[in-house]
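Review form for a predicted model. The reviewer records the input and the model, then writes brief findings.
Reviewer: anonymous (R2)
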Amino acid sequence: MSDSSKNSTDAGTAYQVLARKYRPQNFDDLLGHEAMVRTLRNAFAANRIAHAYILTGVRGVGKTTTARILARALNYEVPGKIDQPTIEMDEEGIHCRAIAEGSHQDVIEMDAASRTGIGDIRELIEAVRYAPVEARYKVYIIDEVHMLSTSAFNALLKTLEEPPPHVKFIFATTEIRKVPVTVLSRCQRFDLKRFDIETLCTYLEGICEKEKSKVAPEGLAMIARAAEGSVRDALSLLDQALIQAPVDDGTISADTVRDMLGLVDRATSWEMLSAALQGNAPEALARFRGQYDAGGDPGMILKDLLEIIHLLTRIKVAGEAAASQGLAGEADRDRALELAQSLSMAALTRAWNLLMKGHKEVLGSPDAAASGEMALIALSYAADLPTPDEALRLLKEGKLKAAPATEASATSAPSAQEAKMSEASTKGPAVGGEMKFEQGHGSDQVTQKRSANASAAVRPETAPVAGPVFKDLQDIASHASAMGDAKLCMEIETMMRLVKFEPQAIEFNPTDQAPADLAGRLAQQLKAWTGKRWVVTVNARETGASTLRSVRQTKVLNHPLVQAALSAFPDIDVHRDMRISTVKTLSDPSIEDGSELDET
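Model under review:
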């Protein structure tokens, strides 16, 4: 055999990767894009074919493949049978093979990533004027169109809006948000979704049958998960996995696929997470070290734990149906259901936050393994701590006590809060307390009483104490005043028209003078005072009750003494000429002795 004939034979039998070998050739072969196929079928049947299409989606979902199939449909021709655009391509037309191979002279494929300038687009615009050489339409497929420069987009706009009747444009992009809206508005858009794990597993199983190979179902699920919704990535990984087949039998095990992908053992991840959530740090660290020594990447280990936490949280929210979504096997489903029942939503949220922080630190750490272990230690010790809600409940039930001040803390420098309380005691009433003045022996004697809340505020504690209880809006305003927040007190009394007041929920209609951030600031203060989350909302639809100040003002004006004064001086405008601050009865027997009203 000559060298030339040998090279020809080698070229003819050259191996073709699965991603190219099983590339769809018509719309019936497309996987998971039924909505797009239905739309195109109706458009072609009604002869309402657009002049420009844009396909968007993540890598490997079939954008370029779909563009080529669409170009085939536009130029489909079978001599003596079909000579019109159609998506029903049951047999190979005279242009199909050349278009599929990317060698047809009337179907021009352009990579915008390498040809981004206005000069390239000017060449395209110049060529658009000429009719196709042999096909029905001249089709321009521009891949990664978002990479074109601004000037290139601007130059393309006019041609894109009013192209010659023999020209069609098909754009593909992974970054649809980077495409100018002026271009998007001139195209029919199709979003190609990523594929779910179940669909990919079924597809890969079919490919294995065609290749006369077999991969364990759990191994196929690992490949599907690693592909992240991309068919091309899944076929590339499957191609690599099929090489791992043993000689004696053709079955590729899940362990083989796991080693190939560098994944952590899923079963070990469940055991590691369970140990950490139970506070068993030594067991969790031993599992982590075993994975790491076996070649597992610390970032992938924590990522696997995050996936499990996400799954458990979905089950808590959506029920058992969520246990079958995104899992590698039936064993995972059983573990997820069992573990989710034993954990609270607060514990899952805390675990998610700790692992997210740990994963971020692992990615940027000079010692990734050490950072991963520290994340597991933090998660293990956090498992023994009550959540804020549990701590408050235990405190109310008397099962959690505040720790007494230590000798060191008693002799240390006062904190900022203590200094503030000390300063307040020299100027006036303490927070939450009262000041009483008594007359005695020709001199004023001041007796100050501090409430239990005031003394507790300056005592170091290891757990939060129960905050004040507010029964109405007036209680909140009074507390704000007592805490020295005169501004908030004034805003509550003069700018809030109460619509609804419930425990930890306030709804009000603001006056015109109310600041936009009043609801947010009030909610923050209420949480700081009570230790509970308050929902403070604005209701612009309902008028609400009168403001606290208006109510008090009305009460003052209706007082018999004020009415008597107004009768004696009818020309006085109370709101304009005077400010009533205190109304006291002194000696009028007709009025109940000791009644008093205050208004500022």
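Findings: The chain is about 50% helix and 10% strand.
Further findings: The CA atoms of residues 298 and 369 lie 6 Å apart.
Recommendation: see findings above.
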